Amino acid sequence: MEKLIYTLVRAGDWQAAEQAGAYHGSADDRRDGFLHFSTAAQLRASAAKHRAGITDLLMVEVAADALAEALKWEPASSGSRPGLFPHLYGALPLGAVTQVVPLSLGDDGLHQFPLSIP
To answer: What is the largest CA-CA distance in the chain?
Structure first.
C-alpha cells in the first residue's frame, strides 16, 4: 500500500492536537469510530466532497508504516467511491506526521494542493 497518507484538518483542531500530543479526529471521525485518510490520488476528490470551501484547512501528511496495525485499508462507507481508503483506528501520534501544509482556496473555490498531489 501507499507509504504516505493524508488527512485534512482544520487549523484549530490541529493546534489542539499539538497541545495534546496526538490528533483524535474531527467530529465526523469520532462519529465513525476511525480517522479518515486518503492516498495522494484520492485527496483532491475527498477535499472537494467533504471539505469544500473551508478556509483554515491543513493537509497533514503521515508515514503509513508508523501507524502499524491500527491502520486498515477499507472501502468508503458510502460505497460511492471506488478503491480502498486508509482508516486509522486510534489517535494519530504526532511522531507519524511528516509534514503539515496549509491549503488556500483558488479562484475556482477548490483547495490548492502541493505539486506532489496529483
So the answer is: 40
For the stretch 69-111, pLDDT in tens is 999 999 986 666 678 999 999 999 999 999 999 999 999 999 9
For the chain, state the CA radius of gyration: 13
- How far apart, in whole angstroms, are the C-alpha atoms of residue 50 and residue 42? 12
Burial (CB < 10 A; 0-12, 13-18, 19+), residue 54, is: middle
Structure-block grid coordinates of residue 104: 488556500
Instruction: Read off the pLDDT of each residue in 41-57 and give the average, rounded to a whole number.
Output: 95
Question: Which residue spans within the chain are E strands per DSSP?
Answer: 4-10, 22-23, 35-36, 57-63, 71-75, 84-88, 92-93, 97-103
